[in-house]
Specification:
About 50% of the residues lie in helices and about 10% in strands. By secondary structure, the protein is mainly alpha-helical. A hairpin with a 3-residue loop joins strand 1 and strand 2. Helix 1 packs parallel to helix 3 and helix 3 packs antiparallel against helix 4. The N terminus is likely disordered. It holds the Pfam family Peptidase_A8.
Length: about 170
């Protein structure tokens, strides 16, 4: 039993932060799936479009693997990993006290679910489908909105960890 002296007196924002996680995840997932729908409908027939000269192109790619098409024979493993990531984030979100961590985890969840939807529901079959990639930069892998969210969330989490921001929102002195 907690006494008055040991009780946490900070307001409980956990419930609201869970909604932040799901809100960010939902926004990322919606943007990712809408962009892929648009790419399949409009870009697939033409193949590619130069957006900014030789710097940015939209090119239709069916990627059964990970970045740089690594692991093309392990699509089902990427599907399982995405489910594990989603479960861990959902469980972790109930312990959050930091808006920054909620945003980072929401972006990671949305990106993971975006690519998982492709792997589950695109050809050649359930859990083995390809991911639609379309953003091409010179000398780099072709990627999509979900990939951007995953990468940005990972970078943001590293920054939060380096700055000593804990899941609870308290600064960690080290």
């Amino acid at each position: 039993m907690l006494t008055e002296s040991t009780q946490d007196t900070r307001p409980d924002h956990t419930g609201r932060l869970v909604w932040v996680v799901f809100g960010v995840a939902g926004a990322v997932l919606a943007l990712d799936q809408f962009s892929k729908w648009l790419v399949v409908a409009k870009l697939k027939p033409v193949g590619s479009i130069d957006v900014i000269g030789g710097f940015l192109r939209f090119v239709y790619v069916e990627n059964p693997g990970a970045a740089f098409s690594i692991g093309i024979n392990f699509t089902w493993i990427f599907s399982i990993l995405a489910v594990i990531v989603a479960v861990v984030i959902i469980r972790t979100s109930r312990k959050l006290g930091s808006i920054a961590w909620a945003i980072a985890l929401g972006a990671l969840l949305g990106g993971s679910l975006g690519n998982l939807c492709d792997r589950l529901f695109r050809m050649p079959g359930f859990g083995r489908g390809y991911v639609v990639d379309f953003i091409a930069l010179p000398h780099f892998a072709v990627f999509n909105v979900a990939d951007m969210a995953i990468t940005c969330s990972a970078a943001f989490m590293v920054i939060l960890a380096l700055r000593g921001v804990s899941f609870s929102g308290a600064s960690v002195k080290g």
